[in-house]
Amino acid sequence: MNYILKRSLCLPVFLLLVASTFANPFDTTSIKKNRQDSLVEINLKNQLVTIKNNDALLIPEKTNRINAVVKTCRIVQPQSCDGKGGVYFFWNQQGADCVWNGRQENQGVSGTYTEYDNGTASLTGNFDRNGSFNISLSGRTLVNTPHFDACNTSTDVSGWYYFTGISGTIDNDNNCFRPNTSQCGISQTAQVGLGASTRSNNSYGIAGWWQGTWCGGNNPNAADINFDLIECVSYECTISSISLTPTECNPINNQYELNGTVNFANQPTTGDLIIQMDGITVKTIPNPFVSPLNFNIPNLVSDGLSHTITATFSDVTTCTNSQTFTAPNTCLPCSIVNITATPNTCNAINRQNHDITGVITVQNPPLTGGLNIFLNGILKLTLSQPLSNSINYTIPNINSDGNLNTIVATFVDKPNCSGSISYLSPAPLTPPTLEIVNNVCPQKIGEINVVEHCGTNSFIEYSINNGTSWSISKPLYSTIPMNILVRCKSTVDNNCYGSNNTFTTDPIKCTNNNPLCTLSPTIYIDPCNNNNTDFTNSDDFFTIQASASIQGGNHPQRFEVVVGADPFTGLGGNVLNSGGTVYNSTILLGQNKIFKADGISLYKLIVRDLTNNSCFKEVTLNAIAPCSETDTNSPCYPRPCVPIRLTKN
């Protein structure tokens, strides 16, 4: 540390002053004199002093507090657990086995306990019996577990600390006691805290174990020192609190100011008060310091985040404290700069729909509330905070109708911050339309024509096995009836296809070059008949009512209903209405129980012209369930065994 001395006295006189004043306790490392300007520079080690002598002034360029007092307490005699009171104990060792005999000194005591900021402390005072003590403690350290004895069973563990070194003297009755660390391996310690004096759990005190010998003697001894400490006054620098108040965000520059107040005590008289924000120094306040101390930090960016302010005295860096605050949210105008919307060909699940993906670009997005995304006025998506300046979104499963769709994005907490974009939906994959031209007698020619094709970027697929497999080749017309499924498939994404349309060919059977005729049968299926056997369903049957109309041909008059005819030629089979039935009239068939109502049997009928067997239609009768009750429902179930009577004929 550099000191500059201004003087008007002669140099030898001043040097005598310096020698008598600074030789002890200060350490003077160098003294320099500038004869031209009458200045003397003195380098001292870490001393906080200002000395005036007439017109001589010692001015430190930089100062630090060294060995400053941080706490003083008045020493009083504690009350022992046996009611006698005690101050200290002396113990005399006998032999090599450390067997101790003791005597107790319990005279009244007075004195001072002083702690310093370098981790040392001192005990000074007097006993009533013309005794005194001057003890130095060093090596202050926190501990987790205090010591206990028979008088003390519970203490405040959190407030305890140790001094691991003891030196000094106890002088009483013309004897003195000095430390000796070589006896019995017992370390010298002193403990400080509630109940440390081992006399009262609620009293703040100190207890020291000191091993040594009598002055001038060779007998080893030990001392157990116990004092209660009262009227403790702290001189340690503390920053008790920091209050912070941010201003509102300025919409012109998106900035705010932070106003703060620091409350402290026992502050240093040198150095600076350093204010840091998130570890970066934002303000330096020079001494002198007066609590409470107000400060202001301007031009801070409004980001809505949490920040930490730390106040620290530069010359007592242990004197520090911190406080957090939340900055105001950004207040620059929010603006949605751009929205993109890119449709794919089709949705992965519903292949007749599509998905939209896009990016929303925002300036100064709000830090609270979500972002609503609407499709054609319907809320489809809400994105939650935190939201950045570039926001990705996806709206799935949108109907592909080829129309113009509009997407609108709006912030919940700032409805005026909104934007929109429109896009053209992919065209629907509407199934194509076929025209079936059945063969015309006598030419026997049929056609399958495409009336309505698929749209752009799609093609037609055909299936003649009910969708088990698909082909881009149109099937050929055949004299065998076919069900043809058609659909449109995307050329962009082969996984995307539309719904199906179904078309059926109905070839006309032409024989003997007969002119074309068209026969239209009508079959009504009557309800199941249980054959008057309520509990036997094996004989259940049903009847039908058949009628037909005809166009063309050689003026036919009647139709017949046949079972078992050739489905391709219409020939053969068993005629159910022998002689035929006049067209446009109805005949009841099946009274002979040929149509079983068993829930299994299917019947294929041929309805044909009586005189022109090439003019016919095939009709399929689906299975009809039985209508008799089962035997289990009979009141006579199980039926009794009745012997059969045989009569010989």
Topology summary:
Elements (H helix, E strand, L loop, with lengths): L1 E5 L4 H12 L5 E7 L4 E6 L7 E2 L2 E5 L8 E8 L11 E7 L4 E7 L3 E8 L4 E7 L4 E11 L18 E12 L2 E5 L9 E6 L9 E11 L5 E15 L3 E9 L8 E11 L6 E6 L2 E7 L6 E9 L4 E8 L2 E11 L8 E5 L2 E2 L9 E11 L7 E5 L2 E6 L6 E10 L4 E8 L6 E7 L8 E5 L9 E6 L5 E6 L19 E8 L10 E4 L12 E9 L18 E9 L5 E6 L10 E2 L5 E2 L4 E3 L13 E7 L6 E6 L28
Highlighted features:
single chain; 649 residues; mainly beta; eleven-stranded antiparallel β-sheet; five-stranded antiparallel β-sheet; 48% strand; elongated; disordered N terminus
Summarize the structure in short.
This protein has 649 residues and is an all-beta fold.
Question: Mind explaining what this structure looks like?
Answer:
The protein is built from one helix and 44 strands. Helix content is about 0%, strand content about 50%. The longest helix has 12 residues, at about 10-20. It is mainly β and about 650 residues long. Strands 6, 7, 8, 9, 10, 11, 12, 13, 14, 15 and 16 form an eleven-stranded antiparallel sheet that branches. The termini are far apart.
Unreliable stretches (pLDDT < 50, length at least 5) are 1-65, 93-103, 181-185
Report the sheet-strand fraction: over 45%
| Tally of individual helices | 1
What is the helical fraction, as a range of percent?
Answer: under 10%
Ends apart, CA distance between termini: 152 Å
Task: Give the integer mean of the pLDDT values.
Answer: 78
Q: Indicate the overall shape.
A: elongated
- Structural class call reads mainly beta
Count of individual beta strands: 44
User: Cα-atom Rg, whole angstroms?
Assistant: 57 Å
Biggest β-sheet description: 11 strands, antiparallel
The oligomerization state is: single chain
